[in-house]
Write a structure and sequence with these properties.
CATH architecture: Sandwich
Helix content: 10-25%
Number of domains: 1
Largest sheet: 5 strands, mixed
Strand content: 35-45%
Distance between the termini: 64 Å
Order of helices and strands: HEEEEEEEEEEH
Oligomer: single chain
CATH topology: Jelly Rolls
Number of helices: 2
Length: about 180
């Protein structure tokens, strides 16, 4: 008995947590998908501390959808070493259409903030760009991680509208009949 419950719980958790990990680039059709996004910038001769970055995630939506996104920067500052060892600043999220029209954005407001979110945004079927940008302030680099999730919106069938209208008519007739019987009494 416990074995079957354990297997059922394992299958359900595997079905519920099917996130895909992705770096910057083309993600494909995102309808109903969850992507774990992230990138690490290491400081070196070609990418010194103080450099800015912009990671672009391209994706398509085959149907009208809603989108939610969130990122978290990972900061590390050891008191024994001067300056931050690992950190990002001036972080910004942008959601844009394929033709560069801004749909939504969020940016860090205060120096101690580490979380950026784009709330649920309704999107039509089209191509989009999700841009994560910022500045590396750590002596060794900086890193961020996050989630980009879309879910399809239910569109009622025409039959549903007919049933709603008929239900309203039947309810109205029933109330009218009751009102008439009360007036006659």
């Amino acid at each position: 008995m416990y074995r079957s419950i354990f297997l059922l719980a394992l299958m359900l958790s595997g079905h519920a947590g099917n996130a895909l990990a992705a770096g910057p680039g083309y993600l494909g059709d995102l309808n109903g998908q969850t992507f774990s996004i992230g990138n690490t910038r290491n400081v070196g001769a070609l990418f010194p501390a103080g450099s800015t970055f912009s990671d672009v995630y391209f994706f398509d939506l085959g149907a009208n959808s809603a989108l939610a996104a969130s990122t978290v920067t990972i900061d590390l500052d050891l008191p024994q070493v001067p300056g931050p060892e690992f950190g990002l600043s001036d972080m910004m999220l942008q959601l844009m259409t394929a033709d560069d029209q801004l749909v939504a954005m969020d940016r860090l407001q205060h120096p101690g903030d580490t979380v950026l979110t784009l709330g649920t945004t309704l999107l039509k079927a089209d191509g989009y760009k999700f841009i994560v940008s910022g500045k590396v302030v750590g002596n060794f680099g900086g890193s961020y991680g996050g989630v980009l999730q879309t879910y399809s919106l239910p569109i009622p069938e025409a039959d549903a509208y007919v049933l709603i209208a008929l239900g309203g008519v039947l309810l109205g007739l029933r109330l009218h009949g009751r009102k008439s019987s009360l007036a006659a009494a």
